[in-house]
């Protein structure tokens, strides 16, 4: 089996497994009072070029939902793209952890919200009978595999600030978005107006670790309590932090993301050259959405290539995701099989 289903299907990077084994020696203070967690805090402050509050958690759902919980009241509205993970794939967790806030999905080409659309949505809300505008959440890289530019983020932040809303970034694939452009982590977040970041690691080589990075000190005031109440305060926090420390050491997170993006570029370039195949979105990170002839899909699946159909089956659209450990030989084998299927018609 050759899997292009998800970057969640990959194992953990060897460097991270080694760090876990090293962290297992001896005793350490529990609940995040250990030296490794302190070093992760310092390292992320260095990476983002500013003081930050860092809270390790185990899942992206927890990172997103708890981030929004410190930004949004129970009667608040969170504006997000209609295909956002918080809207489509988190089983009501944001609503649960905020105590009832409402997600307001917005349309947008290639997985991204436009500032003008956001502004119009906010202007049309606010009476006592409706949820009150409270936050905006964007996904970087987006659910369509595209990347928000600095100007696009800044434009959304300007609209949010004008209405007193916080800006949250779901960065499950933040590293992939970062290496796609020539920007610093600071420029892609707080310097562009982001208040809270769900900093992803699991999809990019960690065993199971994410971090909430808060750029506004006031947001951190209650986060610790909310994390504990939600059951996401790990007693042996060093094992989450050890993953994050190894992830950030020697730019492992950036090297892993560059490889995943390069494999996606290789795969998408090859696919675009095959008759009958069309790409649904620009390929800017490590996700590819493409329409393939039904016979080609069936042929690839029969040969042991695994991937997800996307949307209605009649659309013949598939999603292919590359990872930090995707083998170039598997990419080339997929392209050869797709090309052969196209030749057979």
Radius of gyration: 20 Å
What would CATH call the architecture of the largest domain? 3-Layer(aba) Sandwich
Largest sheet properties: 7 strands, mixed
- Total separate domains: 2
CATH topology of the largest domain: Aspartate Aminotransferase, domain 2
Low-pLDDT segments, ≥5 res? none
Which range best describes the helical content: under 10%, 10-25%, 25-40%, 40-55%, 55-70% or over 70%?
Answer: 40-55%
If you had to describe this structure to a student in words, what would you say it looks like?
- There is one protein chain.
- By secondary structure, the protein is α/β, with parallel strands linked by helices.
- It has two domains: 2-7 and 252-344, Aspartate Aminotransferase, domain 1, CATH 3.90.1150.10; 13-251, Aspartate Aminotransferase, domain 2.
- The protein has 14 helices and 13 strands.
- It has helices at 14-23, 35-48, 60-69, 85-88, 93-98, 115-123, 150-162, 174-180, 185-188, 223-229, 238-248, 252-272, 294-302, 328-344, and strands at residues 2-3, 53-57, 76-81, 102-106, 132-139, 166-171, 196-200, 210-214, 278-279, 287-291, 305-306, 308-309, 317-321.
- A hairpin with a 7-residue loop joins β12 and β13.
In short:
This protein is an alpha/beta fold. About 40% of the residues lie in helices and about 15% in strands.
Topology:
Layout: E1 2-3, H1 14-23, H2 35-48, E2 53-57, H3 60-69, E3 76-81, H4 85-88, H5 93-98, E4 102-106, H6 115-123, E5 132-139, H7 150-162, E6 166-171, H8 174-180, H9 185-188, E7 196-200, E8 210-214, H10 223-229, H11 238-248, H12 252-272, E9 278-279, E10 287-291, H13 294-302, E11 305-306, E12 308-309, E13 317-321, H14 328-344
Parallel strand pairs: 1-11, 3-4, 3-5, 5-6, 6-7
Antiparallel strand pairs: 2-8, 7-8, 9-10, 10-13, 12-13
Helix pairs in contact: 1-11, 2-11, 6-7, 8-12, 12-14, 13-14
């Amino acid at each position: 089996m050759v899997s292009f289903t998800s970057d969640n299907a990959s194992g953990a990077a060897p460097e991270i497994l080694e760090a876990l084994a090293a962290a297992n020696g001896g005793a350490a203070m529990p609940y995040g009072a250990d030296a490794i967690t302190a070093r992760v805090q310092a390292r992320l402050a260095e990476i983002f070029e500013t003081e930050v509050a860092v809270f390790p958690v185990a899942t992206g759902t927890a990172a997103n939902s708890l981030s929004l919980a410190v930004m949004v009241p129970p009667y608040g509205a969170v504006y997000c793209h209609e295909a956002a993970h918080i809207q489509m794939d988190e089983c009501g967790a944001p609503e649960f952890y905020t105590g009832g806030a409402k997600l307001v999905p917005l349309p947008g080409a290639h997985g991204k919200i436009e500032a003008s659309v956001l502004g119009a949505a906010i202007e049309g809300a606010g009476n006592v009978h409706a949820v009150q505008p409270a936050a905006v959440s964007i996904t970087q890289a987006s659910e369509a595999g595209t990347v928000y530019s600095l100007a696009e983020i800044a434009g959304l932040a300007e609209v949010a600030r004008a209405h007193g809303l916080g800006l949250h970034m779901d960065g499950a694939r933040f590293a992939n978005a970062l290496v796609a452009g020539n920007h610093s982590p600071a420029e892609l977040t707080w310097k562009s107006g982001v208040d809270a970041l769900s900093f992803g690691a699991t999809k990019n080589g960690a065993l199971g670790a994410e971090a909430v990075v808060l750029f506004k000190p006031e947001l951190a005031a209650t986060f610790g309590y909310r994390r504990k109440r939600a059951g996401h305060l790990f007693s042996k926090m060093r094992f989450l932090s050890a993953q994050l420390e190894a992830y950030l050491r020697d730019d492992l997170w950036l090297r892993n993301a560059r490889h995943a993006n390069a494999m996606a570029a290789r795969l998408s370039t090859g696919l675009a050259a095959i008759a009958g195949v069309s790409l649904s979105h620009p390929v800017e990170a490590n996700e590819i959405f493409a329409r393939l002839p039904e016979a080609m899909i069936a042929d690839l699946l029969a040969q042991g290539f695994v991937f997800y159909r996307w949307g209605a089956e009649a659309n013949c659209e598939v999603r292919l995701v590359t990872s930090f450990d995707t083998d170039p030989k598997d990419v080339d084998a997929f392209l050869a099989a797709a090309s052969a299927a196209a030749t057979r018609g």
